[in-house]
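Order emerges. As here.
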Amino acid sequence: MTQTFGPVAQAGGLSTVVDDRFRETDGLGWMLQAEFDATVQRLFECMNEAPASGWETARAAGERMVAGVQDLLSGSCGGDVAVCSGGRALTSLLVTMGLVAEGEAFEYWRSILMPDLARIDVEIGEQSNTFTVESHFGGSNLQGVDTR
């Protein structure tokens, strides 16, 4: 991901930091495309269960990414931050944030272009977090989300 995002950040005068919480979901082994797609579908259908031996759950991936986003924002002094990761991890993040419905996660993942971009405005309050999507560029949109 650093190879993809690094030049963009550098062109914008931004620094990059590698944080393991934003890695792609853990998954072991090589699979043919049909088997891989079926495994990813199971990943999102049962977010609390590993879809295959050695795979991380979507819930665990989403929760570690939400924690990472909260830490980034708390240290950003009000500035913008960007997160670059793989499609399964980013979909897990959006589901955990309530921006993509669990039942729509697999189709959302399939709609992501390579590369793709989702801009998310985040407000962190003392009691709760409010996440809203401002815009999404790519093969799909986030239906039913407050787009300020």
Q: What stands out?
A: Residues 126-148 have pLDDT under 50 and may be disordered. The first strand starts at residue 117 and ends at 124. The two ends are 29 Å apart (CA to CA).
